[in-house]
Amino acid sequence: MSLINQLLKETRLSRKNAQDGIESEFGIIQKIHGHFYYIKKNTENCAEGIDEFIPLTLPTRMQKENISVYVGDVVEVNLANQTIKSVIPRKSLLPRPKVANVDLAIIVISTIEPAIELEHLDRLLCHAGISLPCKPIICLTKIDLLNDLNILKEYKDLGYEIFPVCNKTGQGFSQLRIHLIDSLSVLAGHSGVGKSSLIKSLCPEYKIEVGEVSKKTTKGTHTTRHTQIFKVSCAEGNFQMLDTPGFSRLDSQVSIADICSAKAFPEIGLINELCGFADCKHLDEADCKVVFSESRKASYRKLMEEADRWEIMQVEEKKEIGNVKVSGSGSRIPILRDSQRTMSRKSAKQMNKDIEVAEDESEELEDDE
C-alpha cells in the first residue's frame, strides 16, 4: 500500500475511534489550480478510475497561519462549504516540485535531445534520496537514439535501478510498471526529456500534451503547467503517478549532514571502515575512505558548498531576527523586535508569497525558452 493510501486509512480509523464512530470527511489533493485545491468526488475509491473533482478553498484562518497545502496531501474537508479544515501530518515531502506523501521519485533523463547532464542528475538523485523513503530510480528515455546503454553503469554500480524505455516501441515499460505497483511516484527531470510522453504511454486514457525539443536551444518545450495525480490500471497492477512541470533546478534547503549521508550519495555507505576523523566531510581529508568518480566528486563538492552557504545564512538570519516561533504546519515565523520591524507581519508574509510566485513564474519562463 502506498504512503498516501496508508495515511488516509490510518487517519480515518483514528478519527473514527476518537469520535465514537463519527467519521470525518477526508480526501487527497489531486491537483491545484490557482487558489483551488481539488479532491476526487468519490474519495473512498480515489485510487480507481476517473471521478469528478471537488474544488476546495483554504479558509482565512489557515491562510493567516501560513499553512501550505500540496498535491498529495491528505486533508480533512468541510463539504458543506467546500473548505479544507486541516492538513494531516505528511509521511514525506519533496519541496521542489512541491508534492507530499510520495513513495518514489523517477528521475527521467534522455539519451539525447537534451543530452544527459550528470551534475543535474546527481542533484536530483541527492535531493530525492534525502526527502523520500525509497531510493530514487532512473528512467532513461529515447533509447532508440543511443547505441551504448552502459552510459549509466556507474550509477547502476551504486545501487540505482535503471529502466531504459522507448515510447515509440514500448520497450521497457512492462518492467517499469512492475516496479511502480502500489506506489505514488513523482517524475523529475528537465523539460523535453520525455516525462509527458512517459505518462502518455503509461496512462493512454489521459489527454496529455507533448512538446517538441527546440532545435535552436536543444531545450525541451514546457508542456505541463500544473502538478496532478494520475491513476494507472494495467495488466501488471495499479499505481499512481504525479505529472509535474519541468524544472531546471532543485534548490530545496538541506544541511551539510543531509548531503554527507548515504541517502544522498551511496558512495558514503559503501565504505567498510571509518574515515580518519569522525566528522569527515569526504572532500579533501587525507584519511578519507570514500571513493567518488571525478564527475560525482564535483557534484558532491558543489552541493556541499551550497549547503554550507545555506547554513551560514540560517545562523546570520537568526542573529538578525532574534526569536522564531514555529506554526502548526512547521513554518518558521520570525518574532521581530520593534527596532527591526519595518513592516507589518501581514505585509512581510505577502511579500514572501509574492517572491515565491515570482520565482516559480521565472522558472516556467526559463523552461519555455
H and E order = HEEEEHEEEEEHEHEHEHEEHHEEH
Task: Report the end-to-end length measured between terminal Cα atoms.
Answer: 40 Å
How many structural domains are formed by the residues?
Answer: 4
User: How would a textbook summarize the main sheet?
Assistant: 6 strands, mixed
Task: Characterise the protein shown here.
The structure is a single chain. The chain has 369 residues and is α/β, with parallel strands linked by helices. 30% of the residues lie in helices and 19% in strands. The chain folds into four domains: 3-91, Nucleic acid-binding proteins (OB fold (Dihydrolipoamide Acetyltransferase, E2P), Beta Barrel); 99-243, P-loop containing nucleotide triphosphate hydrolases (Rossmann fold, 3-Layer(aba) Sandwich); 253-321, no CATH class; 336-369. It is built from nine helices and 16 strands. The strands form five sheets. A six-stranded mixed sheet has the order 11-10-9-12-14-13, with helices on both faces. The protein has a three-stranded antiparallel sheet with strand order 1-5-6, with helices on one face. α4 links the parallel β10 and β11 (162-164). α3 crosses α8 (294-321). The radius of gyration is 22 Å and the shape is globular. Mean pLDDT is 77; it is low at 45-49, 209-224, 338-342 and 362-369.
Report a brief summary of the structure.
This protein is α/β, with parallel strands linked by helices. It has nine helices and 16 strands.
Layout of secondary structure:
Elements: H1 3-18, E1 25-28, E2 31-33, E3 36-40, E4 53-56, H2 60-64, E5 74-78, E6 83-87, E7 93-94, E8 99-100, E9 104-110, H3 118-131, E10 137-141, H4 153-157, E11 162-164, H5 173-180, E12 184-188, H6 195-202, E13 228-234, E14 237-243, H7 256-259, H8 294-321, E15 324-326, E16 332-334, H9 345-368
Helix pairs in contact: 3-8
